[in-house]
Automatic annotation (TrEMBL), chain A:
Family stated for the protein in its record: Belongs to the ATPase d subunit family.
Gene Ontology cellular component list: mitochondrial inner membrane; proton-transporting ATP synthase complex
Protein name (Swiss-Prot/TrEMBL): ATP synthase subunit d, mitochondrial
Entry keyword Glycoprotein: no
Organism listed in the record: Littorina saxatilis
Domain of life assignment: Eukaryota
General function of this protein: Mitochondrial membrane ATP synthase (F(1)F(0) ATP synthase or Complex V) produces ATP from ADP in the presence of a proton gradient across the membrane which is generated by electron transport complexes of the respiratory chain. F-type ATPases consist of two structural domains, F(1) - containing the extramembraneous catalytic core, and F(0) - containing the membrane proton channel, linked together by a central stalk and a peripheral stalk. During catalysis, ATP synthesis in the catalytic domain of F(1) is coupled via a rotary mechanism of the central stalk subunits to proton translocation.
TrEMBL record, chain B:
Organism: Littorina saxatilis
Main location: mitochondrion
Cellular localization per UniProt: Mitochondrion; Mitochondrion inner membrane
Keyword Ion transport annotated: yes
Keywords recorded for this protein, A-Z: CF(0), Hydrogen ion transport, Ion transport, Membrane, Mitochondrion, Mitochondrion inner membrane, Transport
Function noted in UniProt: Subunit b, of the mitochondrial membrane ATP synthase complex (F(1)F(0) ATP synthase or Complex V) that produces ATP from ADP in the presence of a proton gradient across the membrane which is generated by electron transport complexes of the respiratory chain. ATP synthase complex consist of a soluble F(1) head domain - the catalytic core - and a membrane F(1) domain - the membrane proton channel. These two domains are linked by a central stalk rotating inside the F(1) region and a stationary peripheral stalk.
GO molecular function, one term: proton-transporting ATP synthase activity, rotational mechanism
Protein name from the UniProt record: ATP synthase subunit b
Subunit note: F-type ATPases have 2 components, CF(1) - the catalytic core - and CF(0) - the membrane proton channel. CF(1) and CF(0) have multiple subunits.
Record-level GO cellular component terms: mitochondrial inner membrane; proton-transporting ATP synthase complex
Family that this chain belongs to: Belongs to the eukaryotic ATPase B chain family.
C-alpha cells in the first residue's frame, strides 16, 4: 500500500483541547465530532481482505478448477488504495502555510506586547520616590500630563473638569 | 507649634488636593497603546533619570531636595534647634536665651515694640496657640498625616502596583495566547488525518465490496450445482415412478389385490381367535 494505513486518530486530542481558547471550544467540538465520524466509518469494515474458505468450495463444486481459479485470482488481487484526487492534503498544506504566516505575525505582536510589559516592569522601579518628586521632575518624567502653559494652556486650577469643552464645565 | 505639623502634613496634602490638578503617576495600560509607546515612555524616563540622577548631576554640593517627613527640632515649642546650634558655637549654652531676652528688652526699652492697648492681645494670641497646639495639635497632625498617606497611596503607590499587576497579567495572557497559537499544529495534523481516515474508509469499503462480490459468485456456482442436482433427482424419481406405474397391467393389479386381501384375512384370524 502506498499511502499510510490509519485506523485510529493519532492526534493528542486532550492536549489539543487544552490549547483551544475558550471562545473557540465549540468549533473544536464540531471538529472532533467530524473526526469521530470518520473513525467510526473506518471501523465499519475490516482492515484486511476477508479470507474465503476455498477448501469448502473445492469440495462441493463439481469443477474444483473453477474454485482454484477463483482462489488464485482472489489471492492475487491488488486492490488500489484510493488516491487523494482532489489533492485535499495539498490544499491543507497550503492553508497551513498561509495560516502559519498569519500566526507568525500574531505571535510577533504578542511578543512585542510581552517585551513592552517587561520593559515597563524593568523601568518602573527607576521612577523617583514620591518624596523626591518635584513638579519640575514630574514635567520631565510625564511631559504629556504635566502642566504645560506653552503647548497646552489651561485655566487655574488646571483640573480637567473646569476647562472649556469639558462636559462638566457648565456646572461652574 | 503649628509649624510642627504644617511641614509634615498640611502644606503638601492640601496643596496637592485643592490647589493643583490631580497629579497621578499615569502609567498607561500597555494593551491599549501602540507598540512603540512603552519604549517611548521608557526613553523619557531614562532621559529624566539622567538629568536628575545621572553622572552630570552634582549630588554632593546640590543634593536632591527631599521632602521632609517631619519638621526640624524646636525648643520652647517654636524656636528652631539650629538657631541654638548657631549661637552655641559663639556664645555657649546660655547665649541664645540671653540674646532673646536682650532683644525683647531692647525692643521694649527703645519703644520699637510699643506697649499699647493691644499688647494684651499678644499674650492672649500666644497663649491660645500654645493651648491649641497642646490640646488639638496631636490629633490634627494625625488626621492630616492620614490624609497625606491616603493621597500618597492613591497618587503614587497604587498606580505603580496596578501597573505592575497589569504588566504581569499582560505577560501571562500573551504567553498563554502564544502557547495556544502553537496548538494549531494539532489542527493541521488532525485535518490531514481526516483525509487519511476517509481514504482508509473508502479502501476498506472496496475490500468489503470485493469480498462480497467474489463470495456471491462462488455461492452462485454452488447454488447452480445444487439446483441442478436437485432437479436431476426429482426428475429421476418421477421418471422411475411413472414407468413403474405404467408397467402395471389390470390383471397384475387384481392379482395383487387378491393377494392383499388373502393376507389381510390371514392376519385377521389370529386376532379373532385371540
Amino acid at each position: 500500500m502506498a499511502a499510510r494505513r490509519i485506523a485510529k486518530s493519532a492526534v493528542d486530542w486532550v492536549a489539543f483541547k487544552e490549547r483551544v481558547p475558550a471562545r473557540q471550544q465549540e468549533f473544536y467540538r464540531a471538529f472532533k465530532h467530524r473526526n469521530d465520524l470518520f473513525v467510526n466509518k473506518v471501523h465499519q469494515y475490516p482492515a484486511e481482505l476477508p479470507k474465503i474458505d476455498f477448501a469448502v468450495y473445492k469440495a462441493r463444486l463439481p469443477n474444483p478448477a473453477l474454485a482454484d481459479e477463483f482462489q488464485k485470482a482472489y489471492e492475487g488481487l491488488n486492490i488500489p488504495y484510493p488516491a487523494d484526487k482532489s489533492s485535499a492534503v495539498k490544499q491543507i498544506e497550503d492553508e497551513e502555510k498561509s495560516a502559519g504566516a498569519l500566526s507568525k505575525a500574531y505571535i510577533a505582536e504578542r511578543q512585542a506586547e510581552i517585551s513592552d510589559a517587561k520593559l515597563l516592569l524593568s523601568k518602573i522601579d527607576s521612577l523617583p520616590k514620591p518624596e523626591e518628586m518635584t513638579m519640575e521632575m514630574y514635567a520631565y518624567y510625564f511631559p504629556d500630563l504635566a502642566i504645560d502653559p506653552v503647548k497646552r494652556p489651561t485655566f487655574w486650577p488646571h483640573i480637567p473638569n473646569i476647562q472649556p469643552g469639558h462636559k462638566d464645565a457648565h456646572n461652574l | 507649634m503649628l509649624s510642627t505639623f504644617a511641614v509634615r502634613s498640611g502644606v503638601y496634602g492640601s496643596a496637592l488636593l485643592r490647589g493643583q490638578a490631580p497629579r497621578v503617576l499615569a502609567v498607561v495600560p500597555i494593551g491599549s497603546r501602540h507598540k512603540s509607546e512603552a519604549a517611548k515612555q521608557a526613553e523619557t524616563w531614562e532621559e529624566a533619570n539622567k538629568i536628575f540622577y545621572g553622572p552630570e548631576r552634582d549630588t554632593k554640593n546640590f543634593p536632591h531636595p527631599v521632602m521632609p517627613q517631619e519638621s526640624g527640632k524646636v525648643r520652647m515649642g517654636f524656636v528652631p534647634e539650629n538657631w541654638f546650634q548657631f549661637f552655641y558655637e559663639k556664645t555657649g549654652v546660655t547665649g541664645p536665651y540671653f540674646f532673646g531676652v536682650g532683644l525683647v528688652t531692647t525692643l521694649l526699652s527703645k519703644e520699637i515694640w510699643v506697649v499699647d492697648h493691644g499688647f494684651a492681645e499678644v499674650i492672649g494670641f500666644f497663649g491660645a496657640i500654645w493651648l491649641l497646639s497642646n490640646k488639638v495639635g496631636a490629633g490634627m497632625a494625625k488626621w492630616l498625616d492620614n490624609k497625606n498617606d491616603l493621597v500618597n497611596k492613591e497618587r503614587f503607590e497604587q498606580p505603580i502596583v496596578d501597573a505592575k499587576a497589569s504588566a504581569q497579567e499582560i505577560i501571562a495572557n500573551n504567553e498563554k495566547a502564544i502557547w495556544q497559537e502553537d496548538g494549531q499544529k494539532f489542527l493541521w495534523e488532525a485535518k490531514k488525518e481526516n483525509v487519511a481516515l476517509q481514504l482508509e474508509s473508502v479502501y476498506r469499503q472496496r475490500l468489503a465490496q470485493v469480498f462480497k462480490d467474489v463470495k456471491s459468485r462462488l455461492d452462485y456456482q454452488l447454488e447452480v450445482q445444487n439446483v441442478k442436482r436437485r432437479f436431476e433427482q426429482t426428475h429421476m424419481v418421477n421418471w422411475i415412478v411413472d414407468n413403474v406405474t405404467k408397467s402395471i397391467t389390470p390383471q397384475q393389479e387384481q392379482e395383487s389385490i387378491k393377494v392383499c386381501i388373502a393376507q389381510l384375512k390371514k392376519m385377521s384370524v389370529p386376532v379373532a381367535t385371540a
